[in-house]
Amino acid sequence: MPPVRSIWNGAISFGLVSIPIKLVNATESHSISFRQIHLEDGGRIRYRKFCELEDKEVTSAEIGKGYEDADGSIIPITDEDLSHLPLPTAKTIEIVAFVPADRIDPLQMDASYYLAAGGAPAAKPYTLLREALKRSNKVAIAKYALRGRERLGMLRVVDNAIAMHGLLWPDEVRAPEGVAPDTKVTVNDKELDLADALMDTLGEIDLDELHDEYREALEEVVAAKAAGETPPEAPEPAKGGKVLDLMAALEKSVSAAKKSRGEEGEEGGEAEAEAEVRRLPARKSARATPKQTTGKKSTATATARATGKKTAAKKTTASAKKSTSKSTQASKKTTAKKSTQPKKTTPRKRTA
């Protein structure tokens, strides 16, 4: 690691063992910062510090700390006052416990630091603490003072160094009240199985492969503007449709993830597309159906229609049977008359 300026010098208190250390930042920001400018002429906008009493600008060397009391009066606090605070952690990282790492809520995580051994005499106790942490599979909980306040920290091993994560005090972490949806929702086993399948298909990733694409795009814009060129245009964002069917969305996501990894052929994608096309029209027709005013009314209407249809069918069947029996009886009567009555003879014409 390149030499980094330490931001705090002190010692780790490990029981009766004292380990001189230097605190250095473990992270760095790569974000691009902007300056405020006057739009009319491009001049820099700066903030100047003025004294309210004298109404004049003052330098950083003339600025100190002060505490504003309830009545508005200012009580000056000097660095010497802070150095005499009755705290054992003023220049010491005091280890108070060793706990399993999973006991620490990630919500408490704050800034990260490396603890560097403060010279050759610190090498032996530093290595002892590092190896003890490794073998125990635990992390050390410590208290320390930094930038005018006492803080909580967690010590753990990173490669061959000891790192310290600043922790928020438990009362500084808000409870998630009112965050979860208050609508009652039921998730079935099939939906969970598809979600598990999607998680398995997406798999893991090497975090070292991830990078800040926004910063890279911003650098391209700045470079183009500096060269007097037109900044590159942003690509069209992918259009995301509304989720009409959670199951269909999960199935499509699993299929797309498999296809991107080469685990599924074109046939599976076509079958999924067909399945989605069959589902969507059903949802659209259901939406186009006019809304019924009351469920009871629609049920009564449907029942009446069904009853009317059955009654009409019964009447039609009865009338059909009645007409059939009448025609049969008429046929029988006609046959009987024909057989009983004598045959009429045609009279001959007389000649004069």
Describe this structure in words.
This protein has helices at 79-83, 123-136, 189-202, 213-226, 246-260, 266-288, 295-340, and strands at residues 8-14, 17-25, 50-51, 56-57, 65-68, 74-77, 92-100, 109-117, 138-146, 149-158, 161-167. By secondary structure, it is of the alpha+beta class. Among the domains are: 1-27 and 79-173, Beta Barrel (Ku70, Chain: A, Domain 2); 187-204 and 245-286, no CATH class. The strands form three sheets. Strands 1-2-8-11-10-9-7 form a seven-stranded mixed beta barrel. α3 (189-202) runs parallel beside α5 (246-260). It starts with 7 loop residues before the first strand and ends in a 12-residue tail after the last helix.
Quick gist of this model?
By secondary structure, the protein is an alpha+beta fold. The chain is built from seven helices and eleven strands.
Q: What's the SSE pattern?
A: EEEEEEHEEHEEEHHHHH
Poorly predicted parts: 265-304, 306-328, 330-347
Q: Gyration radius, to the nearest Å?
A: 44 Å
Distance N terminus to C terminus?
Answer: 154 Å
Mean pLDDT: 76
CATH topology of the domain at 1-27 and 79-173: Ku70, Chain: A, Domain 2
According to CATH, what is the class of the domain at 1-27 and 79-173?
Mainly Beta
> Can you give the helix content as a percent range?
25-40%
The assigned CATH architecture of the domain at 1-27 and 79-173 is Beta Barrel
Largest sheet: 7 strands, mixed, barrel
Strand order of the largest sheet: 1-2-8-11-10-9-7
